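Dear colleagues,

As part of the handover before I leave the project, I'm documenting each prediction I ran so the next person doesn't have to rerun anything. This entry is a single chain, and its sequence is reproduced below.
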Amino acid sequence: MQRREDQIYNPSFERDACGVGFVAELSGDYKRATVNDAIEMLERMAHRGACSCEKNTGDGAGIMVALPHDFFKEVTKDAGFELPPPGEYAVGMLFMPTDEKRREKGKAEFKKVAESLGHVILGWRPVPTDNSDLDESALETEPVIEQVFITKSSRSEAEFEQQLYILRRLSIISVRAALNIKCGGERDFYMCSLSSRVQLQFCYGRLLCPTRQDVTSD
């Protein structure tokens, strides 16, 4: 069918909104090169983290990677706890309040919800970050980023992931209610991911990825 010349739509007006890419290691092995390729791809998508008037501020973008068990096994020892074998635990990535009392209250509420679903909190780990390249508006809303490690229940792997989804949704509602976020309070709590298989690493183009220890570690 031919396009009518009097139509408002014109294909020349098309623009892309978001960039999404996939990098995979066909052997199934964990390789640093795969993460490097993903970071390079992300750097080429500056528009994905919508830019503000400040050169170093944007909505943010990131990469999703398989849980690096060997890496977590080492860093959790420094945090004072040990991990079970892969697949027997999950990791949550959370944006937390900068106020310590609100942060501890949020953790306590998350623990209550997790334990009600049959999980045990193994421990919490502050995620190393570097905010030296952030502009003023980003610094004003910068959260504390932490990871929570929880045990698997007696369910199968597939059911474990389903339960983690339920836990994530319920805990967001419960914690926000406990922190009075729904009643005009600050929106300073969010669980970005919770899974026994993958984790999210948030970056803004080239600005944060090279300075995040978790992303750059071999």
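Residues 109 and 174 are 7 Å apart (CA to CA). The first strand starts at residue 61 and ends at 66.

All the best with the project,
I.
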